[in-house]
Amino acid sequence: MRIDAEELSWGVPGKTIVRAVSLSVAEGETVGLIGPNGSGKSSLLRCLAGLRTPTAGQVRYDGVDITRWPSHERARKLAFVEQTADTDSDLRVADVAMLGRTVHRSRWRGPDAADHAVVEEALARLGLTDLADRPWKQLSGGERQRTHLARALAQRTTGLLLDEPTNHLDVRHQLELMELAARTPQTVVVALHDLALAARYCDRLVLMHRGTVVADGPAADVLTPPLLREVFDVEAEIGRDALGHLAVGYREPVR
Questions:
Q1: Could you say which DSSP state residue 244 is in?
Q2: R_g over Cα of the chain
Q3: Domain assignment of residue 125, given as a range
Q4: pTM greater than 0.85 (yes/no)
């Protein structure tokens, strides 16, 4: 699925949070949204998902304005995973993942064998098979995050929006999740604070600052000392780690 935003703006009374953002994400591309807190990343993702109505501009899926898609059709095209999400504490891990199948069946039909097979695959991809029967209230923060990602995978969409999905995850699961995002054939837009993870796994980076896009391109073109100084107020050095991946070192905040 191709995702396009054209001159997109959104805000609250007295404050514009997303300001005239234009963005195109090609089918199968993984794009990382980076920027400091309050730069508009989460709000932009919600506009792309159709969860917030922009005050100006337009979002299109495969060239069609999303306002022309009923909500259940949008949910078949694109899954959204927010930073933190709560769920009925009586549900099991498998039950939460099964919620992703809701958009593919009528309200009168329960899960069938095909639905269960999709959920089992999603749980396996997130390393949750052994936790399938675990109650939600017994999960750690990282396990809850992976469960919601399993729900999004079970939704079987062509697009995936992830808002800080590595929050609460240990290093191993951060790497596994980003590897999954990089390898999936889905179109992915992921907001990240970890610049090293973004550089390593995303096809390109979009740097936001004060609601606007200030840089868009390959990691090496976006993660530069002048841009990091301007946007994050830090002095930084860019190099390569022992594995050849782009590395960002911070010397000190800008005084």
A1: S
A2: 19
A3: 3-253
A4: yes
Do 29 and 62 contact (CB within 8 A), yes or no? Answer: no
| Block residue for tokens 């927010």 | 82
**Cα dihedral sign, 203-161-85-140:** negative
Least confident of 27-36, 39-48, 70-79, 218-227: 70-79
Q: Are 61 and 1 in contact (CB under 8 A)?
A: yes
Judged by DSSP in three states, 47 sits in helix
Tell me the pLDDT band of 52, cut-offs 50, 70 and 90: very high
Q: How many CB atoms lie within 10 A of CB 176?
A: 16
Q: How far apart are CA 97 and CA 153, in angstroms?
A: 8
Sign of CA dihedral 219, 224, 228, 234: positive
Q: Which helix (H) or strand (E) holds 134?
A: none
Q: What is the CATH number of the domain that holds 201?
A: 3.40.50.300
Q: What is the pLDDT of residues 173-204, one digit of tens each?
A: 999 999 999 999 999 999 999 999 999 999 99
User: Kindly report the CA angle at 126 between 26 and 110, in degrees rounded to 5?
Assistant: 90
Coil, strand or helix at 192? coil
Q: How far apart are CA 107 and CA 121, in angstroms?
A: 23
| Structure tokens that stand for 83 in this block | 């930073």
Residue 18 structure tokens: 């997303």
CA distances from 206 to 22, 34, 63 (A): 11, 6, 21
Residue 196 backbone class (left: φ over 0; alpha: ψ -120 to 50; beta: rest): alpha
Segment 47-75 shows an average pLDDT of: 92
Report residue 252 as tokens. Answer: 């000190």
Q: What is the total count of domains within the chain?
A: 1
Q: Over the range 100-122, which residues count as b (16 or more CB within 10 Å of their CB) and which as e?
A: bbbbbeeeeeebeeebeebbbeb
Statement: residue 226 has pLDDT above 90? yes
